[in-house]
C-alpha cells in the first residue's frame, strides 16, 4: 500500500541525497579552490594564510550542511505530525 506519506518520504529522500551530493562536492571543491585563489590573489603567496582560509571555508560548508539538515528534519517532523494528526481526526 503506497499512501501519500510514502510518496512524500521518497521525494524527501531524493532531495536529501541531492543535498548530500551537492555538499560533498562543495566540501571537496571550495577549500581547494579557495586555497589556490587566495594564495595567488589575496595573500600574495602566503601559504599559511591560504591554508587557514581553506580550513575556515571547509568548516563553513560543513556548518551549512548541518543547518540545512536540521531544518529539513524539523520540516519532516512537522509534516509527519500534521499528517498523523489529520489521520487521527478522521478516524
List keywords for this structure.
91 residues, mainly alpha, 2 helices
> Cα distance, first to last residue?
18 Å
Roughly what is the average pLDDT, rounded to an integer? Answer: 83
Q: Label the overall shape.
A: elongated
Instruction: Calculate Rg over CA atoms.
Output: 20 Å
**Unreliable stretches covering 5 or more consecutive residues:** none
Query: Can you summarize the main beta sheet?
Result: none
Q: Please tally the helical runs, counting DSSP H or I stretches of 4 or more residues.
A: 2
Q: What share of residues are in beta strands?
A: under 5%
SSE series: HH
Give me the count of strands.
0
Q: Provide the helix percentage.
A: over 70%
The count of domains is 1
Instruction: Tell me the structural class.
Output: mainly alpha
Overview of the structural elements:
This protein is mainly α. The chain has one domain (7-90). The protein has two helices and no strands. Helix 1 packs antiparallel against helix 2 (47-90). The longest helix has 44 residues, at 47-90.
Amino acid at each position: 500500500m503506497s499512501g501519500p506519506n510514502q510518496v512524500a518520504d521518497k521525494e524527501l529522500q531524493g532531495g536529501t541525497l541531492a543535498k548530500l551530493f551537492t555538499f560533498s562536492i562543495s566540501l571537496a571543491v571550495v577549500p581547494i579552490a579557495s586555497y589556490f585563489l587566495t594564495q595567488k590573489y589575496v595573500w600574495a603567496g602566503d601559504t599559511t594564510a591560504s591554508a587557514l582560509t581553506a580550513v575556515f571555508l571547509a568548516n563553513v560548508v560543513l556548518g551549512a550542511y548541518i543547518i540545512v539538515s536540521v531544518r529539513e528534519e524539523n520540516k519532516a517532523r512537522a509534516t509527519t505530525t500534521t499528517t498523523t494528526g489529520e489521520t487521527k481526526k478522521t478516524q
